[in-house]
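Example record used in the benchmark description.
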Amino acid sequence: MEEQKFRNKIIWFTFFFSVLVIWVHSYNAVLFLGATKTAYRTDYLERFLGDTIAQVAVPGFFLISSYLFFRTFALKLLWPKWNSRIRSILVPYIVWNFLYYLGYVIGSRIPVIRDIMGKGRIPFSIVKAVDAVLHYTYNYVFWYLNQLIILVILAPLIYLIIKKKVIGGIFILGIFFAIYAGVELRFVNLDAMLYYSVGAFAAVHGKEIVEKSWDRKKFFAGFLLLILSYLVYGFDFPGEAPGEMAASVVLFRLFVPVALWLIVPDFLLFEAKEWMKQNFFLYAIHFAMVRLINKTGAFLLPSLPEIPIGIFLFMPVICVFFSYYIACFLRRFTPRIWCLLNGGR
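Model output (structure tokens):
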């Protein structure tokens, strides 16, 4: 496909994944309704969307980030690539983590907001601030950026491994079997490494398939992969590690974004609107919005099941709306701050 159409499709997919991520963090049934049967039934409905479908979003982000990094990669371009990611990932990672910490510190000293937050008085110190920045203590959603930073550091090693198609394929299978066996590494999540490595492999060896214009063969391949992802989800592989890192769950979350990319025709995607292009800022700010809206709503509104479900379903609309106009304000009146918060995008 043409470069413009490829970039437009990337924006569409990152926006779609951003919406899904908002649902992942918007659970509110127990918060509104307490530990009741009604709350658990409502929570089940929310988690069907947020825990099953929406969880494909972060693997999708890893695949896209990796593909774009390795799409034009060569070892001689390593420093320019790293320098670019320092500005677009590392700097906003530090800034946002500190801002979240500072926001919690200030909020915990304002009586009404402290009651809504429910975390008591949060101490302010250099040690606590450094811990909050390094370990995203008050900004849980940035675990993704934490992992992405580590994987970008490992990028030259990953490239040298996947550069050879056979060796790269064996490496990816090795990561999968390590996940199946329940292996854990200290600094990097194996599922994140799997998604990132698959994206790298596709960029090096599968560019013609990934960037090929849509046709029936591409649609059929994506449709089959989507069916396979449905069949594999929840499948009990003998001896696999249970939980979020179960091999079947990891495969499902890998297959769905790839299948959707193959299925969705690029020519049907109109040019992305400006409010669809603020995806990093939306990702960074949505967690604060979600927590504020849910906790304030639970504090002020009656305990009716329709209220948390309604707020949950419309949360992406609310977050996209407010984040876009906040972004417009910052970009117009404080461009330097905007540049820091949005990583120069």
